[in-house]
Write a structure and sequence with these properties.
Largest interface: A-C, 51 and 62 residues
Number of helices of chain A: 16
CATH superfamily of chain C: P-loop containing nucleotide triphosphate hydrolases
Low-confidence stretches of chain A: 1-9, 433-451
Number of strands of chain C: 10
Helix content of chain A: over 70%
Chains: A mainly alpha (about 450), B mainly alpha (about 375), C alpha/beta (about 260)
Mean pLDDT of chain A: 81
Shape of chain C: globular
Mean pLDDT of chain C: 88
CATH topology of the domain at 48-103 and 221-433 in chain A: ABC transporter involved in vitamin B12 uptake, BtuC
Oligomer: heterotrimer
CATH architecture of chain C: 3-Layer(aba) Sandwich
Number of domains of chain C: 1
Largest sheet of chain C: 6 strands, mixed
């Protein structure tokens, strides 16, 4: 009996393979596939009709979104309807520095400084807000919260003083927040002005062939980290919610992010960003796709993934065996958001123009549909569903977009009624996980039943 | 004095908007209380109500369903009989199960024909016209709600909740994009005719710079009436008792002899009727209707239901009115507020979910370990 | 299986001191005290609704006590999170079985062996360290399952197991956290007499093999009286008796709580 196969870790190596060989067995094929993407990309781009190439690229984006959402919805069991928000964060925070701080991807150092300054400015703002709420937390001893409250009062006093002195006659109650935002912006701006030229000269010193890919990687990774920070912020309050409430709350977060972007002038407002330089091509996209699939597969079928699934199954039982439910639930959001952000970054650097309306509720629902259609808890199911659901509207290309959505939604409803567990029913295509669900044979033969 | 007048005006606007949200929110909260399902399609039933009202008032009701729809429906009935026969059920038993559906189909043919006839001979404003428009819209939306529950949600009752949620999203998308089809409603916004409901145009009070439209009063009065009426039904009647039983414990209520299916259908039909009324009132008040109008009010009504305590009718009305007031105040008093008014609703949602997830009037249910 | 005695004295005793737990106006547990040493086998009995599971929940951190203190060794553990208390050395099972239904038997146990969120990069890059850890966890899990007689069912999905095996799996999962104290909440519920005998053997075996302090909630008097050395009796949240099996059986308060007042 293959109890070995039942342990979800045992995919590539058996019990007796020495560690180094198992590591090579796991990593070398991945590296080979990644390298293979380069020639494949070149061939496809030269020979394939641009329409089909675009479809292939769309499939790539959707795979990343679906697989990253599978971690949150399927493995962690937290029904998130706000995935487009993370994608939007990644898209804008890759598009904006690409436009402003690195024309034609020639300036990796300045881009890096951008992300670091952003980190510092936001970190300071978060620290101030944290102190603001510190006094409001219930502590066991009142005297522990007093310093926080005093600090907060002092801060508010200084700020209102400043407000009265500078701009406002009677500072409205939200002056604190707008002043905070202004000073953060000022901090960010001055950091960029200070360090920008130095960084630009560092970039200029790099050889050209290194500069452009490096800048791209910095953009992607930075955008992903920003998105994962947002995922962290979303994941924390989500801890208290369950099921439908969580769905609506994440929907709300996604909408809030979209509305916030829509209302911020530096990010283009309702019109969005245009003429972002283009850098994503098949190779880059599918390298990231492969990395995403491998990373999420390894996380899901590891001890971390097992803990995440345990939290999904029964939170109280999981905490009773020492699993920190908070950490794992937030971890799922953070990692899922990271890859969604990278998808968004790739998207914006491919489409060259983005607008907040592209990242609304409908965009959030698409990966949810893919994940559920493929089967919750199945990575290959998500990939399969992503491919099918991207190709479907293209197959029905001749019909108007509204009618396409009608057929799409009809299919969705019918699919849910007829096969609710999804295409693969929560199992993977390969390697086989657990085989068919087995039950032990009836125990009549083991115990004498008194007649 | 100017500020006070403006404030009172905003107050009235807020109450009016909130009352319309309340009519929609009641539907959400009742369905959630009974099935623990967020009926995403409810906002679109509201939209359908508005559009059907418009068409009924302007003579746009088709005399019959398109021929292919007849084919699909009859084909569906035949297929159902066939499938159940293969599964071993006698046709008589199948007939009994889908009798309501067949009845709806059969009745709809003459009703639609008559409605089309009447809607073309309407002369607004007249009380008879109003009754017709209201009645037809309510009937249509009630039927729609019944059909949605029967065909899409009932098969999924034993399944995990996420399936029902996705189905609800699917139905919502279906209604929105189906409505945008040029042969149905078309994507461009349309305008309500000026005098759909007689005696309701113009202001009731127009003094000191405050304008209270008659429609505002009607909406508020209607909402209060419905809140009181529904509370009475839920607390004092047998149906209400069954409703409460089902919302506490689904299976046990069935064991106690409560007819689950009829209670659930009743809930859906009632909610949809209220949404229809809300749709018409929105059309009369704001005149502009289009197939995507149901999204935002739907979300906001749901947020209002959560805010007031989901499963609680009084809470839904209260939450909706408060939400309407806040939205109007944000637009009126915050600089650039009209950009943020949708965001404010979501911020309120997250705030209430964090601070008191059971809502203002709800009770905390703690899981027993 | 358990520690080799290096920090033997640190977590030797679980001291529950005068804990109370109120829910609004209801006093679920009032002035409950207990001393559980390593190697003890104690029982907690009482009619339904007496507050036994609530006492468990307070000890394991699901609820914080309204008043009173709990010490494990020299560390104070009342009011801490359940996961933290478990890592300190207290494990429990549940009255209505809370297994990870859709995970396999092996996975249910293996979660307890590798539950730290650290080492994410090692996981993603599939480093030799992660590989070694994986094998170690697997070996430990199979050993534990073999000890409890579940190793032949390691691949089965937990929800498909027969009831008795599910109970044993829950105990195995609790043991996998390498506790010093084990709290069992009605482990014999729903078992037939034969299974109960096997359970008694199992509990004795666990105590002897793993050197744990075991606290048992049970309704089956025969089981409790035969294996527990010391028994606490609760009724309506109050402790009405404390002593050995003989003493409890003759205690008039206990008899009254269970059987009602004698008819005069």
């Amino acid at each position: 009996m293959s109890w070995r196969k039942s342990n979800i870790l045992n995919y590539f190596a058996g019990q007796d393979t020495p560690p180094w060989r198992a590591v090579l067995l796991a990593n070398v094929p991945v590296a080979a596939i990644l390298l293979a993407m380069i020639p494949i990309g070149r061939v496809l781009e030269d020979n394939l009709d641009p329409y089909y190439l675009r479809v292939v690229m769309l499939i790539g984006f959707n795979i990343i979104l679906a697989v990253s959402l599978q971690l949150i919805n399927g493995f962690s069991g937290q029904f998130s309807l706000g995935h487009a928000g993370f994608m939007a964060v990644g898209a804008y925070l890759a598009g904006f520095p690409a436009l402003q701080y690195s024309k034609d991807f020639n300036d990796p150092s300045t881009t890096l400084i951008f992300f670091i300054s952003l980190l510092i400015a936001v970190g300071l703002g978060a620290a101030v807000l944290w102190m603001f709420f510190l006094g409001m937390r219930r502590t066991r001893h009142v005297h522990r919260s007093l310093p926080g409250i005093l600090l907060m009062v002092l801060l508010v006093w200084i700020v209102t003083d400043f407000a009265v002195a500078s701009k406002y006659q009677h500072p409205p109650f939200w002056a604190f927040w707008s002043l905070l935002a202004d000073s953060l912006q000022g901090l960010f701006g001055s950091m960029m002005n200070l360090l920008g030229p130095m960084a630009a000269s560092i970039s200029a010193a790099m050889p050209g062939a290194v500069r452009r890919p490096l800048c791209f990687i910095v953009l992607l990774y930075g955008a992903g980290c920003c998105a994962s920070a947002v995922g962290f912020i979303v994941g924390l309050p989500a801890l208290r919610l369950r099921g439908d409430y969580l769905a609506i709350a994440t929907l709300g977060f996604g909408e809030i992010i979209r509305i916030a972007i829509q209302n911020s002038r530096p990010l283009g407002g309702a019109l969005g960003l245009t003429s972002i330089p283009k850098y994503t091509d098949f190779t880059w996209l599918y390298v990231v796709v492969i990395i995403t699939i491998v990373a999420i597969w390894r996380i899901a079928y590891s001890s971390k993934g097992r803990a995440i699934m345990a939290v999904r199954e029964d939170e109280i039982a999981a905490s009773s065996i020492g699993v920190n439910t908070t950490t794992f639930k937030v971890m799922a959001f953070t990692i899922g958001a990271f890859f969604a952000g990278i998808a968004g970054a790739l998207f914006s650097l491919h489409e060259q123009s983005i607008s907040p309306y592209q990242f609304g509720v409908v965009k959030s629902i698409e990966p949810v549909v893919m994940v559920t259609l493929g089967g919750l808890g199945s990575i290959s199911g998500a990939i399969l569903a992503a491919i099918v659901l991207t190709l479907l509207p293209e197959v029905l290309r001749d019909i108007s977009p509204q009618d396409r959505m009608v057929i799409y939604s009809l299919l969705l409803v019918v699919m849910m009624i007829l096969r609710p567990q999804g295409l693969l029913g929560g199992r993977e295509l390969w390697p086989r996980r657990r085989g068919p669900l087995r039950s032990p044979a009836p125990a009549c033969s083991e115990r004498a039943v008194p007649v | 004095m100017q500020n006070v007048t403006q404030f009172i005006q905003q107050l009235i606007n807020g109450l009016s908007l909130g009352s319309i949200y309340a009519l929609i929110a009641v539907g959400y909260t009742m369905v959630y209380g009974v099935l623990q399902l967020i009926n995403f399609a409810h906002g679109d039933v509201f939209m359908i109500g508005a559009m059907v009202g418009l068409y009924a008032a302007t003579g746009g009701v088709p005399p019959a369903l398109p021929w292919w729809l007849h084919v699909v429906i009859i084909g569906g009935f035949i297929a159902t009989f066939a499938v159940q026969w293969f599964r071993g059920r006698r046709p008589a038993a199948t007939f009994q199960r889908i009798l309501p559906l067949m009845a709806i189909y059969v009745i709809s043919i003459p009703v639609l024909f008559a409605a089309s006839f009447i809607s073309r001979r309407l002369s607004l404003p007249a009380w008879s016209a109003t009754i017709f428009v209201m009645g037809f819209t309510i009937a249509t939306c009630g039927t729609l709600g019944y059909l949605i529950e029967r065909l899409a949600y009932r098969p999924l009752r034993d399944r995990p909740r996420i399936n029902s949620l996705i189905t609800a999203i699917g139905i919502s998308l279906l209604l929105e994009y189906g409505g945008q089809n040029p042969r149905v409603f078309g994507p461009t916004p349309q305008a309500y005719p000026n005098q759909v409901i007689p005696l309701l145009n113009g202001a009731l009070v127009n003094a000191h710079g405050i304008v209270i439209l008659k429609i505002d009063v009607l909406v508020l009065a209607l909402t209060i009436l419905i809140m009181v009426g529904l509370s009475f039904v839920v607390l004092k009647t047998r149906t209400g008792l069954g409703l409460r039983a089902v919302s506490y414990r689904f299976d046990t209520a069935a064991l106690m002899g409560v007819n689950i299916n009829s209670i659930v259908s009743f809930t859906f039909v009632l909610g949809s009727c209220l949404a229809a009324v809300a749709g018409i009132l929105w059309g009369v008040k704001y005149t502009r209707v289009d197939p995507l109008m149901g999204l935002m009010p739907g979300f906001k009504a749901f947020i209002a239901a959560v805010f007031g305590g989901i499963g609680n009718i009084t809470g839904a009305v209260l939450g909706a009115v408060v939400l309407g007031l806040i939205e109007v105040m944000v637009v009126g008093y915050l600089p650039g507020g009209s950009q943020y008014k949708d965001g404010v609703a979501f911020v309120i949602l997250i705030a209430i979910l964090l601070v008191k997830p059971s809502g203002l009037l709800g009770k905390n249910v703690v899981e027993k370990v | 299986m358990n520690d080799g005695g290096s920090l033997a004295s640190a977590t030797d005793v679980l001291r529950v001191e005068h804990i109370t737990r109120r829910f609004g106006g209801l006093l679920a547990v009032g002035d409950f005290s207990l001393d559980l040493h390593k190697g003890d086998l104690q029982g907690l009995i009482g009619p339904n609704g007496a507050g036994k599971t609530t006492a468990f929940n307070v000890i394991t951190g699901v609820y914080a006590p309204t008043s009173g203190q709990i010490h494990l060794g020299n560390k104070r553990i009342d009011g801490l999170q359940p996961a933290v208390i478990n890592r300190a050395g207290i494990a429990r099972t549940f009255q209505n079985i809370r297994l990870f239904q859709n995970l396999s038997v092996l996975d249910n146990v293996a979660v307890a062996f590798d539950r730290s969120p650290r080492g994410l990069w090692h996981t993603i890059l599939h480093s030799p360290q992660s590989e070694r850890r994986r094998k170690q966890v697997e070996q430990q899990s199979m050993d534990l399952l073999a000890t409890l007689g579940l190793d032949d069912k390691a691949g089965f999905i937990a929800k498909n197991l027969p009831y008795g095996d599910q109970r044993r799996l829950e105990i195995a999962r609790a043991l996998a956290t390498q506790p010093t104290m084990l709290l069992l909440d009605e482990p014999a519920a729903g078992m037939n007499p034969q299974e109960k005998v096997e359970l008694m053997e199992l509990i004795r075996f666990i105590r002897q093999q793993f050197r744990l302090g075991i606290l048992l909630i049970e309704h089956d008097m025969k089981l409790v009286m035969s294996i527990c050395e010391k028994i606490t009796v609760l009724d309506h949240g109050e402790t009405i008796a404390l002593g050995t099996a003989q003493e409890i059986q003759c205690n008039p308060d206990v008899i009254e709580a269970y059987l009602g007042e004698p008819v005069h």
